[in-house]
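Quick question, first post here. What does this chain look like in 3D?
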Amino acid sequence: MGLFDFFRGKKRKEEKKTSTNLVQDVKEKEDPKQRIEEAKPCPIVEPTPDDVNKDFEEKDKKDSAIVFKDEKHGIEVRASIHEENTIFSEPYNEVKAYVEFMDKYSLIDAPETHSPNDYVYFQFLNAGLHGVPDVRKCHEELFSKGFYEECDSPMVFLTGMTVSELKDLAEELGLEVKGKKAAIQDAIAKVTTYEQLKSILGYGMYHPSKKADDYKKAHQIEIEYYFQLKDQSISMEDFAEARKTESLDDINFPSYKKAAKQDEFYFGTGEYEWIAEYYRKKGKLKRTAEFYLKVFLIELSGIQLNNVNWHEFKKYHVTQENWKFWNIDIDDDVVGKIHDLRDEIDETLLNKVAGTKLPFNACPPNLFNQIIELIKVDKFDETTKQKLSIALNENLKKIRKDLYGI
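> Answer (accepted):
Ran it through. Tokens below.
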């Protein structure tokens, strides 16, 4: 949730409070006789599914422990007592908290503009910041230590505003504005200063300072460990020792290979793209080409779409017009990568990748080879792409019929 969402959130809560007060006023003005009528016993009604769900919600509430409670502001954070490790169980870690906060909020206002209940909406599940006190503590510490400094450009206010908010501000400034959001922002920025907008809006804007950058450099190893290391089973001590002789990518490489083999949903395409770029950095372009070809083959095969529950499609009679959302699409980005690496793709490499064993394949080896050749010789235009997409999805339709009868 961004900065201006907090202010809109505050407004919504105030509106809700006002609405509640109005309902109470109406109830107090009701006829006493009507309240007596309403108090008469009602006939017994069988519980509805909603009633049952409410019962479960109440039971869950009873079977949970209060992690934090602020009676003054009506805040209560709970965690299930049945879970050994909850999102609330991780201890506060200063480095993780500081870095995650600064990365998440490159623009933010000062702590004094927020009430404690605002901090419920800050979500930091990776840094041990799970209750109101820790988040507020982190916000206050970063400001008191000089990790944030005040901005000096009026545009920092304007970039976070909606068109409606910008028009209201322009009206307050006596400006007649038209056009798109960017044009309105430019018009306001030309006639105001940061200090003027700060005075009008009632708060200042801050961004991370040089001291924040220095802090990140000083804690580089810890930041890599907490946020960039793929295998979290490695201890901090072992990781720090390994980093003396190895790059972060070298340490991560075995984990990406392992994850690709274990990925039964996307069949390793995300990991393969990472591995391809790893080899590019090493100057091994043929290996880079091999892994982008693997990504392309998997996407054209349609096996990733096998994770859609087609039995449910049949059960609920989803019309075939809507099946287009689960059709094979040819990724222009991967096509571009393969085109750039065309000099590395020879017949041996192409046959190796095309022969990859998959659960099923809507793009058989001969068709895959033809597609790659078209890409290599710059004949993979939009018309060709559309024709091939139709052919691939016809193949996928036949496979679905054989597997699921639909």
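The two ends are 42 Å apart (CA to CA).
The longest helix spans residues 3-28.
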